[in-house]
């Protein structure tokens, strides 16, 4: 997924990112599967996409089996885009991934998707 997104990104016009390839509204039935890590929440969809891709590139060995997603969530002041990596087996795995990202100065919190 990340390689696909990066190749699409390179083919685009400068300054324009096709965020629809990464953005998804996570359905309740898929959002409850396991644990995720969140690497940011943004008011701008593009910044959320960039954050999730940067995190995935920072620790590829730890995050190779995860799915990158940007979740659109309504908030009291508009829309928030949550940059997440999904698919961790449990809390311990999510916490270990966050620890690896923090060592590289990437903010991260484990999130129970269930």
Automatic annotation (TrEMBL):
Signal peptide: none annotated. The keyword 4Fe-4S does not apply. Keywords: Carboxypeptidase, Hydrolase, Protease. Residues 1-15 have a biased composition (Basic and acidic residues). The keyword Cell cycle does not apply. SUPFAM superfamilies: Sporulation related repeat. Residues 29-114 form the SPOR domain. One of its GO terms (molecular function) is peptidoglycan binding. Pfam families: SPOR. Residues 1-20 are annotated as: Disordered. This is D-alanyl-D-alanine carboxypeptidase.
């Amino acid at each position: 997924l990340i390689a696909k997104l990066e190749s699409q990104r390179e083919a685009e016009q400068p300054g324009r990112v096709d965020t629809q390839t990464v953005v998804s509204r996570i359905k309740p039935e898929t959002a409850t599967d396991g644990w995720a890590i969140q690497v940011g929440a943004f008011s701008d969809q593009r910044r959320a996409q960039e954050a999730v891709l940067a995190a995935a590139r920072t620790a590829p060995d730890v995050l190779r089996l995860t799915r990158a997603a940007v979740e659109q969530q309504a908030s009291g002041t508009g829309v928030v885009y949550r940059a997440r990596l999904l698919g961790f087996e449990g809390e311990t795995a999510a916490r270990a991934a966050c620890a690896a990202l923090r060592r590289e100065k990437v903010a991260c919190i484990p999130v129970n998707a269930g």
